[in-house]
Write a structure and sequence with these properties.
Blueprint lengths: L3 E4 L13 H4 L2 H7 E6 L7 E10 L2 E6 L1 H4 L5 E6 L6 E7 L4 E3 L6 E6 L20 E6 L15 E10 L14 E5 L9 E3 L5 E10 L5 E8 L6 H11 L5 H10 L3 H16 L9 H5 L3 H15 L5 H8 L11 H15 L14 H5 L13 E4 L36 H9 L1
Antiparallel strand pairs: 1-15, 2-3, 2-5, 3-4, 4-8, 5-6, 7-8, 9-10, 9-12, 10-11, 11-14, 12-13, 13-14
Helix pairs in contact: 5-6, 8-12
């Protein structure tokens, strides 16, 4: 029986201000409400995206841009698991399942399934103000950048610019009155436009062009042009859903419940990155963590602790010990990391990472050093997998150090796999 407990530590470069939109919403939820729409037959170059907005028994409603599904063809709606990118729903539809909404470039698709799909939280597009943060989610078509359609949607950050006047409805816009400064690609039409709270406020339909025919901004149909938007929104408010992991983390941080917040932080990373559902993160999974998630976690820890905890704080401490990774002398690298661990108060030497060091013994400390949270290290009687590539001891059957330098996950040039990812992101 392998006994393991995982906590985590981050070493980060200088914090860069970033848009709030994608930070405050749950990215995995946004990915799961965004569907891919492929065209069956000989029209593989066509297709678009859509958003699941409602469940009524075994029937689900999906909104998309009407031009994505207006031809009399068979289309395939694909729904993916956000963690492992596996298909969890595949539905063939045609004109019998598709209904145009008034004369807008907006369509309603109905599918039937006994599976449980996530639905979007409906917002109020009328509350948008210029410069509000927005996130657009959709599946680009193959291009010079990608050779085939992906199994996870592209998430692009942007700003709400303006709402076109009502007469724009009569000038070929077909309801596309939300103007946004955001990068979009062919194939993302019909995808979700969400506000900073993760609420659906629009359906992406097209790129607006200036007098010269060049793209100047992106356009979306406001959700309030969908006749059922208010009814769906009201029903969601009455249902009182459980708070998301992000909301729970913020509540724990606000209450200064640091140990529980540390556990919730790990839960958020696992939910996003643990593709094989093994209970930890390997090097491949760490390298695919969303940058915005790492930024979000760092900012929330810093804000709640008044600058005492967080990635940036730890980075400042670690920089005093960190130098270029020495591949020929792994012991020196362990010494650097151990010196850092001593400074923040986790342990005094690497031999202490053993069964005697428990989560409760760390969380119950009444006084902690600056940079103590978030915690990152691993201990156990035996080691089979090292999530982020930090040095840990390997014990033999006599609970003695067997070989300090055998790692399943190799160190990267910057010291650790997680550190390398943070440098990529921040």
């Amino acid at each position: 029986m392998i006994k393991r407990w995982f906590a985590w530590l981050g070493i980060v470069s200088i914090l860069i201000p970033f848009p709030v939109a994608i930070a405050q919403l749950d990215q995995s939820q946004l990915k799961e409400i965004t569907v891919r729409i492929d065209v069956e037959g000989s029209y593989k170059e066509d297709g678009g995206s859509g958003v699941i907005v409602r469940q009524q028994g075994q029937f689900y409603t999906i909104l998309t841009a009407y031009h994505v599904v207006q031809e009399k063809r068979n289309y395939k709606v694909l729904i993916f698991n956000s963690s492992n990118q596996q298909i969890i729903g595949s539905h063939i539809i045609n004109e019998k399942n598709i209904k145009q909404i008034d004369d807008y470039d907006l369509a309603e698709i109905t599918i039937q399934s006994s599976a449980k799909y996530r639905t979007a939280n409906i917002g109020d597009s009328q509350q948008l103000q210029p410069t509000d943060d927005l996130t657009v989610s959709g599946y680009p078509l193959p291009s010079s950048k990608i050779t085939k359609r992906l199994s996870t949607p592209t998430l692009n950050l942007g700003k709400f610019n303006d709402k076109l006047p009502p007469d724009a409805l009569l000038k070929g816009k077909k309801g596309a009155t939300l103007k946004m400064d955001v990068t979009t690609e062919v194939g993302m039409s019909g995808g979700a436009v969400v506000n900073k709270n993760g609420e659906l406020v629009g359906i992406l339909v097209e790129a607006d062009k200036d007098a010269s025919g060049n793209k100047s901004s992106s356009l979306a149909i406001p959700i309030d042009l969908y006749p059922q938007w208010q009814a769906i929104r009201n029903s969601q408010r009455l249902s009182s859903p459980l708070p998301s992991p992000n909301q729970t983390l913020e509540q724990l941080l606000a209450a200064k419940k640091w140990g529980q917040a540390n556990d919730k932080t790990w839960e958020i990373l696992l939910k996003e990155g643990d593709a094989d559902q093994s209970g930890d993160l390997d090097s491949f999974e760490v390298k695919n963590l969303e940058c915005s998630t790492l930024k979000y976690l760092d900012v929330k820890w810093q804000q709640a602790s008044g600058g005492e905890y967080g990635f940036k704080v730890q980075r400042g401490i670690y920089s005093a010990y960190h130098s270029e990774y020495n591949r020929d002398n792994p012991e020196s690298n362990i010494d650097k990391y151990t010196a850092f661990a001593q400074k923040v108060g986790w342990f005094n030497n690497i031999q202490e990472i053993s069964k005697d060091l428990s989560p409760n013994s760390l969380y119950s400390r009444k006084k902690t050093n600056r940079g103590f949270y978030p915690i990152w290290f691993m201990y156990g009687e035996k080691i089979e997998k090292i999530p982020f590539g930090l040095p840990v001891p390997i014990y033999n059957e006599y609970n003695e150090l067997d070989d300090l330098y055998k790692y399943r996950e190799p160190w990267q040039s910057e010291g650790t796999i997680l550190y390398g990812r943070l440098l990529d992101c921040l």
